[in-house]
Amino acid sequence: MDTSKIESAIRALADDAELLRRFQDDPRAIASQIGLDVEWAETIALGDRYRLQAAGVGAAMSLRVAQWFIDRLNDSALTRRTRQELSQSPARLPVPAEVVFAGGCSHVPAPPTSLGSAGSEAIRRRRAAYDRLAADIRAADPEVMIVVAESRAPGFITGAFVIGTGSTIGASTTTSDPALALCGDPTYARALVDAVRAEGLEVEESNRVGLDKDLLSPLHILLPEPELPVIPIITQPERGFSPFGARAFGEVLRIVVEMAGRRVAILATGGPSRRSDRASFGQLAPEFDRFVLDMLRTGRGVELGDLEPYALLANGRHEFQNWLVMLGLVGPGVAAEIYAYEPAGRGDDEGGWTVVNMILPPKK
Fold this sequence. Notes:
Elements: H1 3-15, H2 17-25, H3 27-31, H4 38-45, H5 49-54, H6 59-69, E1 99-105, H7 119-140, E2 144-150, E3 162-164, E4 168-170, E5 181-183, H8 186-198, E6 204-206, H9 213-222, E7 230-235, H10 243-260, E8 264-269, H11 286-297, H12 309-313, H13 320-330, E9 336-344, E10 351-358
Parallel strand pairs: 1-8, 2-7, 2-8, 3-6
Antiparallel strand pairs: 1-10, 3-7, 4-5, 9-10
């Protein structure tokens, strides 16, 4: 069947909740109404995204179909089970009492000239979301801040995640101001390194992590005070990409956070979908972004660690490993409030843009 007809049918289902419900109940009966034959109606009803992609259907659209019809997106064989409703959050694990803030955000918006004719209004709107997140961090009053980012600067030895163990975090080769510097926390950072290695996971420690755009851009707005110790965790998606591994890395951090007894904020940087001109993968994928934000909103963000790497990379989510580290630390069942989301950018730097605050349980 022609790809355009399949995609048209999927759009019809996406636009009409009642039609989708009837299709879920009896796909054969609805097939002709949306221009499908019985075979392709059953393919959609199975959530068979692999066959849909083989037929030329876009990855984001095929993943939305899988969201409708199977209970989880992962590497296992497709089944005929009905997907659990997003409104049903998984069982919550206790969030470590020491975690006083958790959230994620894109990098600070580019200058208005890169955002088109509506650039000034876009900057105002996005800055308001950042200011709201900054107020949350100040109110949480953390004693140490863990920031998860990817790196644009070379210099690491391995392809593993990197934990910055230096007493200061200075300017990187990509930072225009060589005088910039933040405080580190070598003792806490090395405790994180030791815990990760004790669990058999790879990690590189470095006292030369620099303040490039991925760290500096959000922190110059969000850091409550210059003296607050910052521990950078650097992912390297161009050298290795494992959603499951990123989540497991975050889960191990719980050990140190709980034992150290200090008030911790954790911030994941990077946007939703994004096209990377450096790595030549990804695309702006608003449909997939909305799926991810739905999962976050309903407390199912950690389940995104079960996605196969291709599903994330094809939809421009090479930065999402950063978020999965944060989600692994927070644990399942913690819902998010989406302060802002919109597709943005032009040319080689286009992508989704978002600011998210995790709704942590009240502290006793």
